[in-house]
Every structure is written in C-alpha cells, then in structure tokens.
Structures
1.
Amino acid sequence: MGSHCAASLGIHSKDQVMLLPFLNQSFIEAGVDEAGRGCLAGPVFAAAVILPQSFEDPGLDDSKKMSHEKRLFFRSYILKHAAAYAIATATAEEIDKINILNASILAMHRAIEALSMQPGFLIIDGNRFKQFKNIPYQTIIKGDGKYASIAAASILAKTERDFYMEKLADEFPIYNWQKNKGYPTLFHREQIIKHGISPHHRKSFCKNNLQLHLNF
C-alpha cells in the first residue's frame, strides 16, 4: 500500500499520539497481546512482536480503535518491519478445560515460544500473566494504546483471528461468523438457541451466557 493509500486511511494524522517504542530498551523486548477473549466460539489468539531498535512508528494504535482497512494496512507493515513475530492459539476445548484467562496466557506463552529470537524482556497487555520460563516481564493495563510492540501484537492477533473465523463461517454459515467473528451478538446467540452449538463453540461460555444445559 503506497503513501497515498496510507494518507487516505488517515494513518499519518498530525494529531496522532505516538506510542512509546520500548519500556526497557536494554533488552530485546517483545510486546504480547491476545484477541478473542469474549467470544462464544473459536480459539483465543495471541501474538508476540519484537520491533527493531530503528523502528519508526507510522501511527500504530490499539487494534480495537482501528477500522478494518487500517488493521490490514498495519498488519502488512508489521509483518514487513518487525524483527520477529509469532502468532499462536488456545482452542475452544482448552478454554473449556482451563478457563479463558489461563487459555489466553497459554496462547501468549506459545507465541513467545515460537519467536525466531529469544526476548530478554516481555511487556504484556493487561494485568494478568504467568512468567514464561525465566524471562522478566511487566503487565501494562491498556498497553496496546501505550507501547508500539503491544499494539503491533494486538493487530496481528486480531487480524489472524478474524481470518480464521471467516474461514470457519464457510463451514458453519448459520452463525454469521464472517461478521460477528464469534462474539455474542444477538443474532449469534439466537442461532445457538435455535440450532445448538457447533464443535467450535466454547461450551462453558455458551452454558454460562445463554443458560444452556450442556453436559461436558
């Protein structure tokens, strides 16, 4: 995507607040975030991103604040300019077994493990994490709106999960996952009540949120 397209998306706004590049520049630092915690269906995705010391922030921000087009632009930018990145998941079955918090952390651990270079420090979006190996870390509430590497991780996790749910929608069209991505929209909830759950639904979420009588 060229500079004209970038400008048309409002990416280089004069009012853009530049995110901080690093929390601890003395180490190879990875930003980590997840996507899909509140969904009724599908895995939770996590990404870990290491940015180079020379990284120039073109207007990165929390993926939730971006349009679909902006997320896709920044996805390509991150994949091109990151020093290292990895994306991983925890399945709906794992979410049911160990709960969504632990599954989100598991997905984060898998993403960190898959990085092509070993980080010396981790910055994690949110306020809950379990140490991975012996790597020091810092949790940061709303970190995806403060640090570039966490914002980058949020974009990769979000876009990768969206792609995944769009593919699943071809197999299970009744739930409209190509639009709701597994989140508990009214239509999605009505379809679950009407047609039941799929193998990709989180049984614990459907049971608790929709008061379905599920045995598992």
2.
Amino acid sequence: MTSLQERFFDLLDEYEWDIFSRKMLNSTQKLTNSEITQVLRTLTKSGSIVRIEKEKYRRKSFLNEYVIGNFLVPDGGFAYWTALNMHGLTEQFASVKFLQTSRASGEFITDFGETYKFVKVRREKITGYEKHGAGNHQYKITDIEKTIVDCFDLPQYSGGYSELIRAFYRAELQSNKLKDYCIAIDNISVTKRLAYLSELFQKNELYDFANFALTQVNKRYTLIDPLGNNEGTFNNRWKVRLNIPEDELILIAKSIY
C-alpha cells in the first residue's frame, strides 16, 4: 500500500466513513484534488473501494443496502411497499426497494445485486421521515402515517390494494399526522378514501382527521380502488364510489396474511 493510500484510509477511519463522496473527501482539506483523483482511481481499479455512482463510493466490505440506497438519494428515503414492510404492516417482500426522491425516476442495481426503485415526487411530498442508524450509517424511512398516505397516493407501489387496506386497518395512526401529510401531498381523493375507510373500520382515533376530511370533500366521486373498474355503489357523504363493496372491504381488512 502506498503512502497516499495509507493516508486515504486513515482519513476514512478518522471520520468513520464506510460510504462517502468526493465532495466529502474534499471537505476535509486533508488531500489535494489531484491526490483524491489518483487514490480513487487506483483503489477502485484494485477493488479496495467500490464506485456506487458518479463521485460516490463505499468500502468493499460495506454492504448495508439501506444506508447505500439512501446515500444515493439523500433528499428522500425509503417509502411505499418497502416502508410498509419495515413497519411490520405487510409480510410481503418486493424484489426491489422503493425510495421516494425528487431526483429522476428509475431503477438502480448495485454491484451486489440490490435493486432500488426511485419514485420521483414533488418536493412538497418529501416529508415525514424517521431517521435510523447513526453517523455515517444513517438512513431514513417514512413514518407510519406518511407511509400509509404515500401508498394511497401511489398505490401501484404498495404491493397491491388488498395489502394496503389490511395495512391501514392494522396501523395505529395519529390523526394530526395523517392530516398534515394529506395536506402535503395535496390529493383530495386520498383524503376522501382514508376518511371513508376510517369510519368503515371504526378507527375512532381518527375522529379529528375525519372532521378535517369533511371540509375537503368535493363534488366529484372518487373510486375507492383507483386501480379498479369504474363501477359500484356511491357513498354520498364522502363522494366515493365503492368499486369494492363494503362487506368485501371489511373481509379484506380482517383477513390474515
């Protein structure tokens, strides 16, 4: 190992970095720009460090898929089906991990076979995250309320509408958070669906949310399942069309995995 390489690894050890960017290295002012270029090129070629994407790297031995995924999209974090699973609201696993971000949508596959799905949303929707881990090993995940709201907003990323109904039924939710996140995503249809289901499932802890939702109800009918057919009875109070009948919604909610 060369003297420059020793200095480089000493720097990583000093700052306790297992995952890092060129910008982070520059910020220490302990290596010149040319030294950083040289050592990154040499160590990437030898396999001692791994280039994740442009100017982002990890130690070869560092394989935490949550930290790596969030490092790719630091403005956002894990959400949708992945967050449902991490919160214990579904036992189904997706073949990819979903991250919410304002960067371009698309998939990213790591050198060790982990696949991330980036879901691009407006910056106003990037809120409601919990932090996990510490230091250089931190990552973010949407909290339970934001996970539920996000999945109703984009149910195609929730692992199936039946799974989402069951998750909502089982989740312990705070009314004020649900309200704040519905305001953030600005989707009246989601607010109506959640309020209707909260009454159907007698989730009394969401009484204040339901009162808020009543002030948001518009005249346009919303399908209870946005991915289903335009059919079914109409609920005038919440202006939703039940393309899944009430008795079936209750059966789905109370069914086991």
